[in-house]
């Protein structure tokens, strides 16, 4: 059964600063909840940015490898390897003024049977909100 998340928030940062953070996989372990490891993988032949994240959920670790395609103020994320049967996400950044950006994040994914407990909408919304908040807090440092 597919799950989805949509969230948005006004963040005090330029779209360029937010884009830099989104594509800085190495920094994720410093601020993203549950992220144990984060690293940048070699870019694709098409110049897409690739990264690997390792998360801990209920004392079990899950690895997630993705490729990010940045087009203007949008970043499309596709899972290359990981726990999802299917995963696609989109960051969309709309400048409000030079130091404020409306940040929108949406994700569509399908979980395998053993992870479907995490697909309950209220839990998905809570985790998604915490992720956006973590990016905002990192930008304020």
UniProtKB/TrEMBL annotation:
<dbReference type="InterPro" id="IPR023393">
    <property type="entry name" value="START-like_dom_sf"/>
</dbReference>
<feature type="domain" description="Coenzyme Q-binding protein COQ10 START">
    <location>
        <begin position="11"/>
        <end position="123"/>
    </location>
</feature>
<comment type="similarity">
    <text>Belongs to the ribosome association toxin RatA family.</text>
</comment>
<keyword id="KW-1277">Toxin-antitoxin system</keyword>
<dbReference type="Pfam" id="PF03364">
    <property type="entry name" value="Polyketide_cyc"/>
</dbReference>
<dbReference type="InterPro" id="IPR005031">
    <property type="entry name" value="COQ10_START"/>
</dbReference>
<protein>
    <recommendedName>
        <fullName>Coenzyme Q-binding protein COQ10 START domain-containing protein</fullName>
    </recommendedName>
</protein>
